[in-house]
Specification:
Helices cover 34% and strands 17% of the residues. By secondary structure, it is of the alpha/beta class. The model has no long low-confidence stretch (mean pLDDT 96).
Length: 755
Amino acid sequence: MSDWQPTACMLCECNCGVEVQLGGPDGRHLTKVRGDKAHPASKGYACEKPSRMDFYQNGPDRVRKPLRRRPDGSFEEIDWDTAVREVAECFAALREEHGGESIFYYGGGGQGNHMPAAYSRSTLAALGSRYRTNALAQEKTGEFWVSARMLGGSFTRADFENCEVGVFIGKNPWFSHGLPHARLTLRALAKDPERCMIVIDPRRSETAEMADIHLAVKPGTDAWLLAAMIAVLVQEDLLAGDWLAEHADGLEQVVPHFAAIDVARYCEACGVTEEQVREATRRIARAESAAIFEDLGVQMNRHSTLVSYLHRLLGFGTGNFAKKGAAYSPASLQPIASHTEPPGGKAATSPVTGSRIISGLIPCNVVPDEILTDHPKRFRGMIVESGNPAHSLADTARMREALSALDLLVVIDVAMTETARLADYVLPVATQFEKAEATFFNFEFPKNYFHLRHPLFDPPDGLFSEAELHSRLVEALGAMPEPAVKALRKAWDEGRPAFRARFFEFLQGEPGFFPMAPVVLYRAIGDKLPHGLKEGAVVWALAQIAAQRIPDSVRRAGFDVDGAELGDALFDAILESPRGMIFAVDDWEEGWKRVGTPNGRIQLALPDLLQEVDILDAGPPQETSAEFPFVLSAGERRSFTANTIFRTPEWRKKDPRGALRISPDDAERLGLADGGAVRVTTKRGSAVTVAEVSDRMRPGHVSLPNGMGVDFTSAQGGLERAGAAPNELTASEDRDRFAGTPWHKHVAARVEAVA
Ligand code: SF4
């Protein structure tokens, strides 16, 4: 058994610091895991999930050699030189014939490995590829779009540690986390009589159970509830008038849309009593501070972009921005949530369907439509990296058809995923514990953190990281700026001032150098960094950019150097901090500096979404039917659910098959016993699993967990699947009309007992 070694959990965006012991017969197992008390963000906190991380590191179906598809459909192993050469040649041929924009990129990292996103930029630039997406475009892009327009490119999170009132909309942090030390924060909020927790959720979730006010909204009607709450603010004169006059524009355009709302009727529409709605709204309005967090329960639901807008009207309307306990704009090392709307110009759109591109991402739900067409601009080649669209995106059957229709599909991943099984080439890489890795989900405030994790193992079988792979691909494409690599290698040895000067010379003097910078840095200095940290080379550039973008925040974090030295001081500290480090410290005023609107004020009026508010007056449409009478939430976060990086059900200590949760009334009516077999059918597909009779569910509402239905090779050698894959049941056309985000949490379904 080894000493405890620091790393991080990569099973949700929090990336809590953990310590692990290594052991097992080959010394390559994570045998014990505990929270790392020295981690500056999580401070020893960890939930139950990271104890199972060895099921990822030593999971089934690891790919160890590059694979090429044979004409008969099977795979053959090939050597790395052949693999890199052929993949580069095939993509180059596509580029010559159809243009680089015909090559589409999906992925770039899951919850814990964002380095591939940085290095893949170079390969994509070498190919002339323009379009990309990842899972954020089926979750968060509506929120990014609204936030960007109201705050001018900025993105917000909220301070639940210090808020007087905490509001969770479609979020169950007890299991989905998303805030630092989620369970401790929830407990502190729940037990303080001076504070108040409000939860908006159709289910009596674990978080709702702790709440002072649980607004048990009917599935899919959150927009009516939030509109009613804003109407209460307007009609009872509860808006933060002076604050809004000082900081915001457009209130006079917003108010008329809510002044005439019949609150009682909207409350009836959403199934929450008017008394509760007024109580919750008044509590928010009179609080010193309110923190509000929306998540997938509404972001993958009907009216999701409108809900994101109403959420912000509720927060800004009560003055809850840029003060303790309210919303904030985090400093970021590498912004991944920002979006800039062209002022008065035409937003970028996807080439076939013309769908809005937000934060550089095409909506996931339109990907099949961008492929399965004879449109001359359709996607013909695709790189999938650390992602699994054949499982994780809506309408899996159609997604499989689309991926199979491509001229070329190359998958870069650790294991044989559902997507890899469809590929022409599979390029295997090191796991997250076999290379230096990091996440750019750095959303905290006032102190913000970054953790460049050190590897725990060397990669086996001559495997290597995505940084090495992209460098080889760029070289094979003849696009590596070799003179720059050579000059920068030399300059590094001469010292940082010389290196910086040379780097910025190339940046300013060489057109096309910028997107190549990740692989150039990797080749130039990767092997000169401390052992095991070569993938951190690109962080040198990110540190320089952060030092220029947020110098005061970086200096407040203890980097007492000026000018050009600041970025290098930050970079060195990152390399020297295997348990993570504080890279930025903000004050609350910083929030206003990050408002990027032309006049620095919050823009309350978004005309297209105010029109949507008016449409609510017609009431919620009937979305279930006699054929499909239930609302299915597909993809619920539970104690042992994660994305598809765990490929065996054994990792789950509970609920290995991923039960369908159903209310006692519905179960009784359908003759369903707890643990009995149940079939759930939607317009798109059907799946059989087990039932869990749960009084957390309201009648008419059922839920399936996320991450189920993953194929894996069993101990007996056969391919097996545990549980129902949620996206066999969802439809790609069921999506938000602004952001294209899916309605996975609101799928009309039929439920039947299976004999
Ligand atoms: S909250 Fe749990 S799942 Fe999320 S990073 Fe921390 S330990 Fe991992």
